[in-house]
Amino acid sequence: MEDAIKVEANSLTKVKASWRELSVDDIESLVRVADKIHPSLPESDQVFAERVRLFPEGCLALAESEGDELLGYIISHPIRRRQPPALNRLLEQIAFNADHDTRRPVSSPSTAPRLFWSRFGLVPEDIDELLEKKLLDYGDDAIYLERKNGEQASHRFEDCARGI
Known about the structure:
Blueprint: E1 2-8, E2 11-21, H1 27-37, H2 45-54, E3 59-64, E4 70-75, E5 106-107, H3 112-118, E6 123-124, H4 129-135, E7 142-143, E8 145-146, H5 157-161
Antiparallel strand pairs: 1-2, 2-3, 3-4, 5-7, 6-8
């Protein structure tokens, strides 16, 4: 169990929260969080539900211990190297033969997301002009992160769900 900060009506409240597997039943709550965190990068309920169905091991929910309301989430899945999917598009399938276990670009101007993701072996990659244009869909400050298949990380996504 971790302390998390919840924002309600312009006030901050400390609450108990923990990571757990995300399910399609969480999508409505997930969309409320997504709309607050990055309103300029909307994705449909169907897109989120598809990600959970296609790669459940990469989808986690940070939920209040009192109730089912989400405070945060992780949606991740393998992709082909340097080919992040367009936002708000169904994948139809996962590239399980992908040569890299690459997670979605992180959109944030601070270094905190880089530090968080580096625990899982994800590091910023140099990008070319074509990939730079594709990342603009994720926001002006999107960062492309990669982890090669088989590389060791100090943490695993599954560890978040167990509170490690």
